[in-house]
Amino acid sequence: PVFQVLHESRETIAGLPLGSAAAACCKKANRGDRRTPEVCATYAIISYIMFMWITRAVEPRLQRSAKTRPVVVLTGARQTGKTSTFLRLFPKHAFVSLDLPAEAEQAEKEPGTFLQRHPPPVLIDEVQYAPGLFRHLKVAVDAHRTRNGQFLLTGSQKFTLMKNVSESLAGRADIVELETLSFARSEEHTS
Fold first, then answer.
1. What is the per-residue pLDDT across 78-95, written as a single tens digit (0 to 9) for each?
2. Quick one: how far is CA 3 from the chain centroid?
3. 3-state SS string over 5-59?
């Protein structure tokens, strides 16, 4: 089956050993677990992130924010490492990407159902694709206001994202911008 091929082909990533979580996920899939290949691939990505990582200066702030605010929003340009940073710092959070059209559509058109399918703690990637979700996030946060770090959100369309956050999640969210990796920072890890 497809899971066997995925399991065999993902024993290493770029010559690095695949994490035990990913291998266990794929093995469960072979025993009839209803996980999809995408879930196994996500574990493989997380495993790779855990093995090779350049620490970002913003990481301590993100960890503090998740302890003091119900929502943490990480914004920045595309391909700066927003999702990878959150996945590395908060590996126990569930993950959903609104890059997937079906997820984005449900988050936008049926936000209540979407949040039932993806309860906190959850990382919602590319949240700018579902602006209708923000008012529902406010309701979900207010229902459990003392629970910090419930929702981790990423987005790369800064102005749209900031408008929605400031209107719906004022006082509930910490907004952090992730800058691109500087040449000096990358040089520290290659020498």
1. 888 899 899 989 999 999
2. 24
3. HHHHHCCEECCEECCHHHHHHHHHHHCCCCCCHHHHHHHHHHHHHHHCCCCCCCH
